[in-house]
């Protein structure tokens, strides 16, 4: 069973962000099934978790609904992440959710990125904001991102083509992984790790007094 979770940060109801998220989820399900695999699509609506996300930032603890969403992402073989564009970037609600994920949750996990906005002028948000974010989180970002302006939902073949292409690419990445949980990823060395067991000043002085090692 291939598990995919769709994370949508739309605020309004109805929401163009949710509409695009549903399109991508449906297209990915078809693409995975076309490869002969079973698929399970889960949905995380961040609008419903806004208060719990704020509480988590303040307390460091996730309430049940938020924890369930985090667990969905952790168990998923792939993620579809869709945000509205606010101030030329992803929304604060969207970023907050990925801020509260534990380190390593997205390591080596395929992620399809998508965004919505009023005009096509914001289309580069995929490359200058979303792709760097998920690269930093060590996810494997699908080559094709999907951006949809308001006019794209009026009809025409272009948006469905982009959706199908991105979904096919995500399905291909999932097929490489076999839809199975990935192997544990080695611990990433962080700056703070270098200070976990510092060498004492006394030891450093002793080494210096002994001179360079002989070879």
Automatic annotation (TrEMBL):
<keyword id="KW-0285">Flavoprotein</keyword>
<dbReference type="GO" id="GO:0016491">
    <property type="term" value="F:oxidoreductase activity"/>
</dbReference>
<keyword id="KW-0560">Oxidoreductase</keyword>
<protein>
    <submittedName>
        <fullName>FMN reductase</fullName>
    </submittedName>
</protein>
<dbReference type="InterPro" id="IPR023932">
    <property type="entry name" value="CE1759_FMN_reduct"/>
</dbReference>
<dbReference type="InterPro" id="IPR051814">
    <property type="entry name" value="NAD(P)H-dep_FMN_reductase"/>
</dbReference>
<keyword id="KW-0288">FMN</keyword>
<dbReference type="InterPro" id="IPR005025">
    <property type="entry name" value="FMN_Rdtase-like_dom"/>
</dbReference>
<dbReference type="InterPro" id="IPR029039">
    <property type="entry name" value="Flavoprotein-like_sf"/>
</dbReference>
<feature type="domain" description="NADPH-dependent FMN reductase-like">
    <location>
        <begin position="2"/>
        <end position="150"/>
    </location>
</feature>
<dbReference type="Pfam" id="PF03358">
    <property type="entry name" value="FMN_red"/>
</dbReference>
